[in-house]
Design goal:
Layout: E1 2-6, E2 25-29, H1 35-41, H2 48-54, H3 60-158, H4 162-179, E3 194-205, E4 213-214, E5 217-218, H5 224-233, E6 243-253
Length: 257
């Protein structure tokens, strides 16, 4: 007789309100009480498979011998399956109980992780919105500077000061160019094991307004997966009638070292 022992989870390793009690589980596997019958079927010298391979059917007697042996093997197959069935059923039940225990323990942990990831993503989204806000403020300031320099250039030109007007026009052009290339760098805190990716989420769908195809891709009936492929391929620039979507930041958390 051999034993497979699934040890009891040590007490005190984790404290969770929903932690179930999982008892030690012992599954006993006995040697099938069929050894003598298997030996008889193998003629005590050769294995069952070898005996089957050695059979030749050349006449009616051989035919009867072969079919009789096959029927004995079929009966033995049924007995073997019957022997193991209750143990398989017990193992299945045990596996189901273990999976349920794992689920009870993992559910609050995974829910907590999801909550934290959502809060992290919201915080990073706020940082991104602030970065965009500051960039827009800086861009507006540069455009205002460009307009001011152009106005001064017109005044200088009217006063006959062409050289100054040309300088002011050049400065206005530089300010206008700079306004298109403004980037405010606000980085979130660096934490080992935490990473972010930018993605998009569909906000609303108005099926009646969604076209049948767009860019050669059939999306009606509304296929959200196909829509998301189009959005990602365009890096969030595509406009689809009947569909609104938003940029989101997704957080990936790896276990600490």
């Amino acid at each position: 007789m051999s034993e497979i022992i699934l040890a009891r989870l040590p007490d005190g390793q984790a404290t969770m309100p929903t932690q179930p009690t999982i008892p030690a589980i012992t599954i006993e596997i006995e040697q099938p009480p069929l050894k003598e019958e298997l030996t008889r079927l193998s003629d005590g010298q050769t294995t069952i498979e070898l005996r089957a391979e050695m059979l030749t059917i050349a006449n009616e007697t051989d035919y009867k011998t072969a079919t009789s042996f096959a029927q004995e093997l079929k009966e033995m197959s049924t007995k073997i399956s019957s022997f193991w069935k209750p143990k398989k059923d017990a193992a299945h039940k045990t596996h189901k109980q273990i999976c349920e225990g794992e689920k009870q323990m993992l559910t609050p942990v995974n829910n907590a992780i999801a909550t934290i990831k959502r809060n992290i993503s919201n915080y990073l989204q706020e940082i991104e919105q602030e970065r965009q806000k500051q960039a827009e403020i800086a861009r507006a300031a540069m455009l205002a500077e460009s307009e001011t320099q152009l106005a001064n250039a017109i005044t200088a030109e009217q006063n006959g000061d062409t050289a100054t007007a040309n300088v002011l026009i050049s400065q206005a052009q530089m300010a206008e160019t700079a306004s298109r290339n403004i980037f405010i760098d606000i980085e979130p805190p660096k934490v080992k094991g935490i990473s972010q990716t930018k993605d998009w989420e569909i906000s609303t769908i108005t099926p009646a307004e969604v076209p049948t195809t767009i860019n050669g891709v059939e999306i009606r009936p509304v296929d959200e997966k196909a829509v998301m492929r189009l959005i990602r391929a365009s890096k969030g620039t595509i406009e689809i009638p009947g569909i609104t979507y938003k940029k989101v930041i997704k957080t990936t958390i790896r276990k600490g070292e």
